[in-house]
Amino acid sequence: MKQILMEPKVIENQENKTEKIVKKDPKEEKPAIKEKSLNDLPGVGPATIEKLESVGYNDLMSVAVATPGELIDATGMVQAAAKKIIAVARSSLEMGFESGEDILKKRENVIKISTGSKSFDVLVGGGFESAALTECYGEFGSGKTQIGHILAVNCQKQFPGSTVVYIDTENTFRPERIEQLAKSVDLDPMEVLKNIKIAKAFNTDHQMLLGEKVEDLIKKKGLDVKLVIVDSLTAHFRAEYIGRGTLAERQQKLNRHMRDLAKLAQVHNVCIYVTNQVMAKPDMFFGDPTQPIGGHIVGHASTFRLYLRKGKKGSRVAKLVDSPNLPEGECSFYVETSGLKDIK
Length: 344
Hints:
Layout: H1 2-23, H2 46-54, H3 60-64, H4 68-75, H5 79-92, H6 100-106, E1 112-113, H7 118-123, E2 128-129, E3 132-137, H8 144-158, E4 163-168, H9 175-184, H10 189-194, E5 196-200, H11 204-219, E6 225-231, H12 235-240, H13 247-268, E7 271-276, E8 278-280, E9 290-292, H14 295-301, E10 304-310, E11 316-322, E12 329-336, E13 339-342
Parallel strand pairs: 3-7, 3-10, 4-5, 4-6, 6-7
Antiparallel strand pairs: 1-2, 8-9, 10-11, 11-12, 12-13
Helix pairs in contact: 4-5, 8-9, 11-13
């Protein structure tokens, strides 16, 4: 009888031992790798971190690509300290040279947003691409704003659930137009409008601030931003800075704004589409006197540059003026209620 009573106790002890072994499995106790943050920078305390974050330096990458002067303006630290934390941020991220093969692999993540016109898409290499800044300039009524509205809808057609940011400086955004375009591609207009975040900029400082705030939408709110539209890029700069005496200050400010947009495109793989105003050069006796605002600053900062003009019988003509990898060319199309239509 004693042996019969002892057997269940032995089995019970063996089961308990097995349970204990499972709980002490070393695989479950591996420490998680901690991602480095601003707290890991030498000599940077809570007050300095607060100052950095208030002006958009939220992670090591933003510090690594900053200049000492920018950090000094933001925090009031001395130049030696600014250079030191930039160097530490760069070494932590292992920033350096990459092979062409690595860049080619990264290019596989580039997306291309269709214009809806086959000839236009062919002109720009398959669509407006991400990780790049595309500028369209032309006179009023040439179709710049229409293309912005069309891209906002087509982006959501290609990438359901994505977000479009529209920075409006000339009061050109029209939800009614979005409704028309959404219906033409079988999308719910209300859902499309819900995924477009519009902000009206009232001056150059406000416009630049809104450009910086896009990163907060991506990082803090977790939105899948695929497209940022600025319509137009130069309207406020043109109005606020008048005369040759303010030209240098205007160009420096415009250069910084475009650099911030280009960095946003590169870091977060976002397509940036900006429209630009034009001016006429009365001293030109031959050729097209239409010239874009912003001079060489805007021209060099843009990855792709398109010139839009009015064509025959209500058509529009797009000319690819500058591109890092595509040949110059032109295409013609009509702007209709349903979007862009190719000329047969």
